[in-house]
Specification:
Strand content: 15-25%
Strand order of the largest sheet: 1-2-9-6-11-4-3
Distance between the termini: 37 Å
Helix content: 25-40%
Structural class: alpha+beta
Shape: globular
Radius of gyration: 19 Å
Length: 315
């Protein structure tokens, strides 16, 4: 069990109205974000743009979604790994999730909604789209801060954001029964560039593995989000950024809902020349095909993050 404190994790306050590109507050935050991603693979973001009304609306949407029959939910399939329905897994009995492709657009949300509710559900569609766009803002700011901190051309950052494909994973954890343990999700790192996680209904459970092996719990709040680096961001940074290893322990006494906005790139990603020098020799092949990496993972199923990166693109 992890200690229920996030004091060891870096906190970036995006509610600061002075935090705009070029300001001292922005530059200071860029340094904190880079340090946090290099040390822990994540940081906690305080961002109050969600608001109670939208948060309640998103929670209602999750409850409505997971209240559907399993026969309906399993209709969300995808050729892309982790993009469809995941649930009814014997070794993860508390976990169930669905992926909404392209959630930052109304078209993407509508396509998903039409699968779940052929008769239509405008309220669900609009709530998920508006909610996802808030998480997308954090994803974009985190990427811009990392690029700026490393001195990488910001046009390349804009290109990465423009080529990013997004997936919103809607996640439900039920309470353990008498004969079940409290493991909601096993220890893992994401295959993403960045993952923005939100403990939606104010129930904690997310834990981060620190460098020393200690597990640290992250408190839940409507205005707190965890921005995590995935495997792809570690490759992009030439190994400087640490992918975030995390898990979920289901200690809550009621159903827990959370979300994760995952970003992937549809274009080949290159390690910037600025991140390769004598102190940081090239660790991975310069060209990284993100969706090919997902297919590699699906085939090989190598659980240890660094082992699978070395196997796929190590030099």
């Amino acid at each position: 069990m992890g200690s229920q404190t996030q004091s060891q994790l870096h906190l970036v306050d995006f509610t600061n109205e002075n935090m705009k590109p070029g300001t001292d507050a922005w530059l200071s935050a860029c340094h904190v974000v880079r340090t946090a991603l290099e040390e822990h693979g994540c940081f906690v973001a305080r961002y109050d743009k969600l608001g109670k009304e939208l948060c309640d609306s998103a929670l209602l949407a999750m409850e409505e979604l997971f209240g559907l029959p399993v026969e309906t939910k399993v209709q969300k399939t995808s050729e892309k790994l982790f993009h469809g329905y995941l649930g009814q897994v014997p070794w993860l009995p508390l976990y169930e999730s669905l992926g909404v492709d392209d959630p930052l657009t109304m078209q993407g949300c509508q396509k998903f909604t039409n699968i779940m509710w052929p008769e239509g559900n405008d309220r669900f569609c609009e709530s998920v789209n508006e909610y996802s766009k808030i998480l997308g803002e954090l994803d974009h700011m985190a990427k811009r801060m990392v690029f700026e901190s490393y001195g990488v051309d910001m046009q390349r950052c804009d290109s990465l954001i423009e080529s990013s494909n997004y997936l919103l994973r809607c996640i439900q954890y039920r309470t353990p029964q008498m004969d079940e343990n409290d493991l909601g999700m096993h220890s893992h790192s994401d295959l993403t560039i960045i993952s923005v996680l939100h403990q939606l209904n104010n129930l904690s459970g997310l834990e981060i593995k620190m460098k020393d092996g200690e597990w640290v719990g992250v408190g839940a709040s409507p205005s707190l989000f965890v921005v995590m680096a995935g495997d792809a961001f570690k490759v992009w940074s030439n190994g400087r950024i640490r992918q975030c290893e995390h898990r979920v322990i289901m200690s809550a006494k009621e159903t827990r809902y959370s979300t994760g906005l995952f970003s992937f790139t549809g274009k080949e990603m290159q390690i910037p020349e600025e991140l390769v020098d004598e102190q940081h020799p090239l660790r991975y092949k310069r060209i990284f095909d993100h969706y090919e990496y997902l297919r590699f993972y699906e085939k090989e199923k190598i659980k240890e993050p660094e082992t699978r990166l070395e196997a796929y693109c190590g030099v």
